[in-house]
Write a structure and sequence with these properties.
disordered N terminus; binds S-adenosyl-L-homocysteine; disordered C terminus; alpha/beta; 33% helix; two-stranded parallel ribbon
Length: 404
């Protein structure tokens, strides 16, 4: 974040007219800059950053007033210039299986292509299970990859999310779930019990290709995993990629999360169709990058996601080839039943095909859980996310046409 001028010098009238800068999602370095911009002397900044960090991320504070260990004067200055506002939650849907999906509207950005200057929208999905609560977050608005079976891929890329916007998705979910120490969740039996956090795991499996927004994802992983703040450890953060090979090594070295690869095919000719990025980075290169992934071990396995498409990639021969390809890589295989969406010609494999595929992989010594589709009734399952922006835009267009 760079502020163009020193706000502490601005006349009160100008200050009042300026839109307040959001602090939510900032890194420690950015927070220190923000404090510097309102005149906090350098020697005090580290201590002030630690205080703000605790309030914003650990306690989930939504107002400067509650920060009682910060002097009254500084609290007032912060409130004059900054805001702790969250992105707006436009809709909240709860699936009958407990999955929750929120559509949030981000602050407007000059790169947004929305009608009426509204901010872009992203979807966040929360999946509660017995031993964990996983939050699926997005790294981009839309996606450039155009994977043949993915609904999100039919929406064009609008823009990258900033690191702060990525972090804000977790904060919004914690707000909605009441997931802060000492707060009681609006519990309806769906949220893990006291003592454990409702959101324990993060997956970058929402909209977008995280490794095409590398710097923001790296910074966001840093903020989310910070032990004094949001405290989701790097071992509980998984970044999923369709295979942007040159960024896989740097991801492990500079950010250190768990890695997931959207594999989906074991031959280049088929993968070229299903995941067109394969034409640029074919299987051999992708698997070589996985072999070298920093930090991968039997205790920290790489997840290979494999969507089960009827008659396309689900034969026993392909299961055996998958085992052969992954030899030597500490891997687990996640079989994902295809989630259909309006307009797709693909179908989900029959249950027997999924089972025999899974048996072959399992007998070769790999964990091969079949991912239970979650939240299908609210279009929250893998590949079904697509921001409402497009539909709204189409609706706005009809309204204009109707009036004409
Ligand atoms: N671009 C990244 C992050 C998206 S992850 C990546 O490709 O890994 C979303 C996961 O859901 C990917 O594994 C994707 O291949 C899978 N997916 C997409 N559409 C799906 C669908 N209709 N049914 C099941 N899984 C799907």
């Amino acid at each position: 974040m760079s502020l163009a001028f020193d706000l502490s010098q601005a006349a009160p009238a100008i200050v009042a007219a300026l839109p307040k800068t959001p602090l939510l999602g900032l890194t420690r370095v950015e927070l220190a800059e923000a404090l510097g911009a309102v005149g906090v002397p350098e020697r005090e900044r580290k201590m002030r950053v630690a205080q703000l960090w605790h309030w914003i991320y650990f306690q989930g504070a939504q107002s400067f007033d509650v920060m009682l260990n910060v002097s009254k004067v500084l609290r007032a200055t912060l409130a004059d210039h900054y805001t702790l506002a969250r992105p707006d939650v436009v809709t909240e849907q709860v699936s009958k299986d407990g999955t929750r999906k929120w559509l949030v509207r981000l602050a407007p950005n000059k790169l947004d292509r929305t009608a009426g200057g509204l901010g872009s929208e992203v979807e966040i999905v929360y999946i509660p299970e017995n031993d964990r609560g996983t939050l699926c977050i997005s790294s981009q608005v839309g996606c450039t990859l155009s994977c043949a079976f993915c609904h999100t891929g039919t929406q064009k890329l609008v823009r990258n999310l900033s690191s702060a916007e990525i972090v804000a998705q977790l904060v919004v979910a914690r707000d909605r779930l009441g997931d802060y120490p000492g707060l009681t969740a609006p519990t309806d039996g769906l949220i893990p019990g006291e003592g454990s956090r409702a959101v324990s795991n993060i997956v970058f499996m929402g909209m977008g290709e995280p490794l095409y927004n590398f710097d923001a994802v790296r910074e966001a992983v840093g903020v989310i995993s910070d032990g004094d703040g949001l405290t989701v450890s790097r071992r509980r953060i998984t970044v999923s990629t369709a295979g942007v090979v040159p960024q896989i090594g740097p991801l492990g070295r500079d950010a250190g999360p768990m890695l997931a690869i959207s594999l989906h095919a074991v031959r280049d000719d088929l993968r070229d169709v299903l995941v067109p990025l394969n034409k640029k980075y074919p299987l051999a290169e992708l698997l070589a990058a996985c072999r070298d992934y920093p930090g991968a071990s039997n205790a920290r396995r790489i997840t290979f996601e494999y969507v089960m498409l009827k008659g396309i990639n689900d034969s026993a021969a392909e299961a055996r080839e998958l085992v052969r390809l992954l030899k030597g890589i500490p891997a687990k295989i996640n079989l994902i039943p295809f989630n259909p969406w309006p307009g797709t010609t693909y179908e989900c494999s029959d249950w027997e095909a999924i089972e025999s595929f899974s048996d072959i992989v399992f007998n070769a010594g790999y964990a091969s859980p079949v991912r239970t589709p979650r939240g299908r009734d609210i279009l929250a399952a893998c590949g079904q996310l697509k921001s409402e922006t497009e539909k709204l835009r189409a609706r706005a267009q009809w309204a204009v046409d109707d009036e004409a």
